[in-house]
Amino acid sequence: MEPRTPGEIRLQRRAEPEGTVAAETRTLVVGPYASRRDAAGAEPRPAGARLDEAVGLARAIDLDVVDRLLLAIQAIRPSTYLGKGRVEEIAGRIEADAVRLVVMDCALSPVQQRNLEKAWGVKVIDRTGLILEIFGRRASTREGALQVEHAHLAYQRSRLVRSWTHLERQRGGFGFLGGPGETQIEADRRMIQERMTRIERDLETVTRTRGLHRRSRRRVPYPIVALVGYTNAGKSTLFNRLTRAEVLAENMLFATLDPTARAIGLPHGETAILSDTVGFISDLPTMLIAAFRATLEDVIVADILLHVRDIAHEDTQAQGEDVGEVLAALGIAPDTDRIIEVWNKADLLDAPDRERLLNLSRQAGTKPVLLSALTGEGVDRLLARIEARIAATRASFAVILDPAQGAELHWLYENAEILDRREDASGALHLVVRVAPEKEPRFLNRFGAARRLKGAGG
């Protein structure tokens, strides 16, 4: 729905990437990190790796990162997050380097953000604001755009505070609705809520359409395989390798936002549907998890999840745990049998590490699959693992049909996987079929004489 009133037009403008947070904006990235040690006393995510990721996020929208600053903080100050001395030190750097934007790799309260902008005289965004900027530029489908706008508006609503100054009234872009006084703030808040309500209605329509498409796929007897993983782990490269598609696959955080699904062939001729999804990230804003829940329904209902990890990354263990946390937020236990862990980017490993991890991946059970989506090494092992995992959850049956049972044969081709077919001298068809658990009751009701061979419940 196009905005019609002046207020709606103003709101739409505020929900578009602003000019000042754009390509080549001179940016300082600050990583103010408190120690986060686990039960064993180890730091699960090195501060340097966290800062590198924040710089990567800034560069994902072509910001010109002219400097970075790693700060170890003992306590968070309610007014400015940082201590007075640090604030003054950064002010000097901003002036010396002609910085126009400061990215704080943390979650700032509206008051902290406002006070830092007063102290530094430049625009300040926190980690959530930066991720929202990226999502706002990456979403290309109508559903993705609606989801991102909804998340932006939820963030904007949290930024509306009293005592607006001249600086706030000059701010623009996501999360910043200017306007002096409580009356304007309340008007903006009401306008935001009205727009969010309209978006939610639009998303319900889109979600219903996706649900119809999903049910249509479910009527076809193909299992769903969904790719999940930390952003930039190589999911889209693996998707392209498995499907021979041309999905955007770049060395860039959040290169993929909108889901894509394609058919893939398994080693013994069976077919599965492979779905590529948005990458996860540490401290992913809750509002984005909620906004993309409709998109991630393919993950929730998938028969198999391929958890793709950049095994060559120094932070791979912590990244894997972050993905597990997001899956848990979606109601998926990280240790479920549906998950196959994929150790990607084997081509970046040295020989000893490659051999050690390859030996692990060759073991039976739930061990990871080591591969390189870029070179294709190990992809055959992954496809075999997918096929074996699907077979373990689906029962196989022997079915004999008379030549006149054409309707029954058609039903089997529509609702089951035909693993083997042969005809005897009398013309009777001897079939081996594999049936998904949700279709097994209907199958047994229609083919009571079928003989169970193996698989679920066998």
TrEMBL record:
Belongs to the TRAFAC class OBG-HflX-like GTPase superfamily. HflX GTPase family. It is found in: Cytoplasm. Residues 223-394 form the Hflx-type G domain. Monomer. Associates with the 50S ribosomal subunit. PROSITE patterns: G_HFLX. This is GTPase HflX. GTPase that associates with the 50S ribosomal subunit and may have a role during protein synthesis or ribosome biogenesis. It comes from Methylobacterium crusticola. Its main location: cytoplasm. The keyword Magnesium applies. Keywords: Cytoplasm, GTP-binding, Magnesium, Metal-binding, Nucleotide-binding. InterPro entries: G_HFLX_dom, GTP-bd, GTP-bd_M, GTPase_HflX, GTPase_HflX_N, GTPase_HflX_N_sf, HflX_C, P-loop_NTPase. It comes from the Bacteria.
